[in-house]
Amino acid sequence: MSMSQPSIDFSASSVDVARSLIGATLLVNGVGGRIVETEAYDHDDPASHSFSGPTRRNQVMFGPPCHAYIYRSYGIHWCLNFVCRPAGHGAGVLIRAIEPLVGLDIMRKRRGLSDERLLCSGPGRVCEALGITQEYSGMSIDTPPFQLTPPLDPVPVVTGPRIGISKAKDVPWRFGLAGSPFLSRPFRQPDIV
Predict the structure, then answer these.
(1) What is the 3-state secondary structure (H, E, C) of the chain?
(2) Would you tell me how many other CB atoms lie within 10 Å of the CB of residue 136?
(3) Residue 136's domain spans which residues?
(4) What pLDDT digit, counting tens, does each position of 151-175 carry?
(5) CATH number, domain at 72?
């Protein structure tokens, strides 16, 4: 069983960053919680937006690390990614779920529901609850409106295949906080890393 790192090095591989983010606290304009689920994507990964090279849509993924890359999924939901690896590489980590801890009333209002477990259990839900839209794309995540705090203590991390993709479906680059009820979906026969 591996534990998340005490600090997050965004110049590292997307897999390492995705694992390190589990247990970190993410606030956007003072609203957020603990990251409990992530997915890694890299330029040589056919499921990644960066696989075919830079485009107008994905240019931020090729920029410097530690920036937000926001895209709309299926033309409906915004999704938050953190860029990693050196500029020009094209890698990122999708924030799939957080455990809501701060600003719950704001999240409930934005999401139109009260069940805490459903407020941020999925990448579109995370963005809606935290008020994240395209305007945040390209912003540094180490300055306001973002506040990212690494976990204080190591946390148990599970891994398994990513969700909702049609290519490289079996690559085990989905990471989650072991036992969290706030995941977007349970891990099937997870590997504890």
Answers:
(1) CCECCCCCCCCCCHHHHHHHHCCCEEEECCEEEEEEEEEEECCCCCCCCCCCCCCCCCHHHHCCCCEEEEEEECCCEEEEEEEECCCCCCEEEEEEEEEEEECHHHHHHHHCCCCHHHHCECHHHHHHHHCCCHHHCCCECCCCCEEEECCCCCCEEEEECCCCCCCCCCCCCEEEECCCCCCCCCCCCCEEC
(2) 21
(3) 14-192
(4) 988 899 999 887 765 565 676 779 9
(5) 3.10.300.10
Written as one letter, the residue type at 48 is: S
Asked whether residue 95 is domain-assigned, the answer is yes
Q: What is the pTM of this model?
A: 0.87
Query: Is 67 in contact with 87 (CB distance < 8 Å)?
Result: no
